[in-house]
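Holo prediction. Input below; ligand is pyridoxal-5'-phosphate.
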Amino acid sequence: MRAFRNVGDDPFFVARGKGARIWDVDGNEYIDYVGSWGPAILGHAPKVVLQAVRDAATRGLSFGIPNPLEVEMAELICDWIPSINKVRMVNSGTEATMSCIRLARAFTGRDKLIKFDGCYHGHADALLVKAGSGALTHGQPSSAGVPPAFADLTISLPFNNAELLRKAFQENKNEIAAVIVEPVPANAGLYLPRENFLSILREQCTSSDALLIFDEVITGFRVARGGAQELYGVKPDLTALGKIIGGGLPVGAFGGRAEIMDQLSPDGPVYQAGTLSGNPIAMAAGLAQLRELERIDGWKSLEESGAQLEAAASEAIRSAKVDVTFHRLGSMFCLFFAPPPVFDLASAQRSDLEKFNRFFHGCLKRGIYFAPSQFETGFISTAHTAEDIERTAAVVSEILKAL
Ligand SMILES: *Cc1c(COP(=O)(O)O)cnc(C)c1O
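Structure of the complex:
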């Protein structure tokens, strides 16, 4: 994931970060648009989160006994995301999606799973089929070590294609346990759901008695307080969360309709556990970050910063006369070195990776750090100032003209 292999270099090593900036071990400074791949929505080392971590740490690191902070976190999640009646904390996004799938299979008594090409849901066996993120970047979207018998239960379809979705349901009648989807795919670059695609997913799952799982590990708490499901008005049965919810510590969560969640042990027959799940320091960090985001109305300022970047990038693209596609949703963005439209993995893969490579290194040399892959999304934090974005746009403009 962290290798710079596909951009032909060694990665730098980061020594520290503050706000929108990071410094490598050689003392070079960068404006960071990776933000730990999404969690750092308030920027690096925000005061409120650091203080919460310190306070929690002085009271003990881990108990394996219920603690009040995990209850506060559960209440916040159920309050902000109304489709979630019950929630369970885990330690990563991978655990969250993996547990959603086991739960969906048990609840429906079916085995098959539909996912979408280029969507990344962590590294559980069933989900490493035509996956995105590092798996895609490093050329292993379907991993070795996954028995064909497992992978055969996963059907991967092109995103945004309602016809093929209907066909898959017809061909696997009464066999689909669930559809899992990033409602806004952000692991093969960034592209958006076409009008109605998410509601078509919802209707198809409902009419086929399959569960709809939204993987909101990236979009949760970022595209809106209540995630992509709030933004698009579509209610999944189960939701996977991660990244932002940990405030920079290793956390994930999953939740949904009570009757489904009641299948989890010890109430129900679906086993799930974790030694460090609900860890008090991680809960304290996540709660502090989420409450601060709400206190400062972070979503409003993220949208403003995003709009500023979009306007400046669009101008840079126009004046450089390059064939690229710029996508943005709130504080998430991606510059594809491919002509529009980009709406699924295949269209994203038309990108000119050699051009991306030169763009990436040009920016890096001038102190702007974008993810070292065409197939990742950029993240703005509330710590990015208007000057940071102006400077970024000036660099982007200069590099695009020189390409
Ligand atoms: C990062 C990510 C995951 C996996 O989360 P980890 O904490 O890295 O295991 C799952 N789904 C999506 C959409 C992600 O972006």
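The radius of gyration is 21 Å. That is the main takeaway for now.
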